[in-house]
C-alpha cells in the first residue's frame, strides 16, 4: 500500500502567482526523499500541504491510498508528521514533552522506546525532569523529533530541520532519522538547502523550479541533472557554497 502520494497538485497564491501546477509523485516504501528547489519556489508550501497544514488550489493528496477528504486531519497528521526548522517545546519538562502522544491518544507510554530514541539522538544523559524551555536549540530539535517519532508516523515531513543547528546536533539528527525504527521505519521527506546533506540522507530527489516538478534518483540528480533548471540550480548552489 502506498504511504503518501499527491496527484495533479497545484498551488496558486492569493495574488495569482502559481507555485506549482499539476504535479504528482508517490512514496510507496519507507524511503528518504530530498525536496529541493530554489528559494521561494514552494518547498515549505508543498510540505505543509502534505501535512494538511495548508490547502492546495487543485489536485489531491493521499495517505495510505485514501484521499485527504476521507481522513480526520488529526489522524492524518499523526501519520504524516510535519517538523519545523525551530521546534516548539510544549510547556513542562522533557518527560512531559515525550509523553505528549500517549497523553493525547490515551495509550501507554513506551518508556523503553523513548529511552532508545533519546540514546539514538545522542541525548542518553539528558535529565527528563529538566524544563524543556531551558534546553539548547539543538537539544530542543532532537527532543521534538523523538516526540514525533514516538507517535510512530508513516512519514516525517522535515522542513529544514537542521538549518539552525551546529554540526554536532546536525549529525545527531541525521543519525537518529536514518537509523530509527527498524520494524516501523518512517519515510522521510527532507527540505534542505544543504546539498551535501541531500546527497547524504536521500535516495530520491524531488526538484521544483518554475512550476515544474522532476523526480529522480539522488545519485543521478547530482551526476546528471535531469533538466536545465536543475543544472542551473546545482551550479548556483556550488558557487554559493564556495570553493
Ligand atoms: N499563504 C500564503 N499567502 C501568500 N503567499 C504565500 C503563502 N504561502 C507561501 N507564500 C509565498 O509563496 C512563496 C513560496 O514560499 P515557500 O516558503 O513555500 O518557499 P520555499 O521554497 O520553501 O522557500 P525557502 O527556500 O526560501 O524557504 C513565497 O514567496 C511565500 O511568500
UniProtKB/TrEMBL annotation:
Domain ABC transporter, chain residue ranges per copy: 4-235
Protein name per the record: ATP-binding cassette domain-containing protein
Keyword list, A-Z: ATP-binding, Nucleotide-binding
Signal sequence, renumbered to the chain: none
Entries under SMART domains matching the protein: AAA
Listed InterPro entries: AAA+_ATPase (IPR003593), ABC_transporter-like_ATP-bd (IPR003439), ABC_transporter-like_CS (IPR017871), P-loop_NTPase (IPR027417)
Native species: Paenibacillus sacheonensis
Pfam families found in the cross-reference section: ABC_tran
Matches recorded under SUPFAM superfamilies: P-loop containing nucleoside triphosphate hydrolases
Domain of life: Bacteria
GO molecular function, one term: ATP hydrolysis activity
Amino acid at each position: 500500500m502506498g504511504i503518501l502520494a499527491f496527484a495533479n497538485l497545484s498551488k496558486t497564491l492569493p495574488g495569482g502567482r502559481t507555485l506549482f501546477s499539476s504535479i504528482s509523485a508517490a512514496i510507496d516504501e519507507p524511503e528518504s526523499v530530498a525536496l529541493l528547489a530554489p528559494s521561494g519556489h514552494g518547498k515549505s508550501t508543498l510540505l505543509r500541504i502534505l501535512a494538511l497544514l495548508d490547502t492546495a488550489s487543485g489536485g489531491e493528496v493521499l495517505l495510505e491510498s485514501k484521499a485527504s477528504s476521507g481522513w480526520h486531519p488529526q489522524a492524518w497528521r499523526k501519520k504524516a508528521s510535519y517538523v519545523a526548522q525551530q521546534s516548539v517545546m510544549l510547556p513542562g519538562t522533557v518527560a512531559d514533552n515525550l509523553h505528549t502522544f500517549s497523553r493525547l491518544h490515551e495509550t501507554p507510554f513506551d518508556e523503553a522506546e523513548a529511552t532508545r530514541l533519546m540514546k539514538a539522538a545522542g541525548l542518553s544523559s539528558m535529565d527528563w525532569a529538566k524544563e524543556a524551555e531551558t534546553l539548547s536549540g539543538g537539544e530542543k530539535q532532537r527532543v521534538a523529533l523523538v516526540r514525533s517519532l514516538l507517535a510512530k508516523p508513516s512519514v516525517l515531513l522535515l522542513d529544514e530541520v537542521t538549518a539552525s543547528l551546529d554540526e554536532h546536533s546536525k549529525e545527531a539528527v541525521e543519525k537518529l532519522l536514518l537509523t530509527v525504527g527498524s520494524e516501523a521505519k518512517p519515510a522521510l521527506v527532507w527540505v534542505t538547502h544543504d546539498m551535501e546533506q541531500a546527497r547524504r540522507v536521500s535516495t530520491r530527489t524531488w526538484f521544483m523550479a518554475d512550476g515544474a516538478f522532476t523526480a529522480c534518483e539522488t545519485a543521478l540528480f547530482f551526476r546528471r541533472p535531469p533538466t536545465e533548471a536543475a543544472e542551473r540550480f546545482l551550479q548556483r548552489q556550488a558557487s554559493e557554497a564556495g570553493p
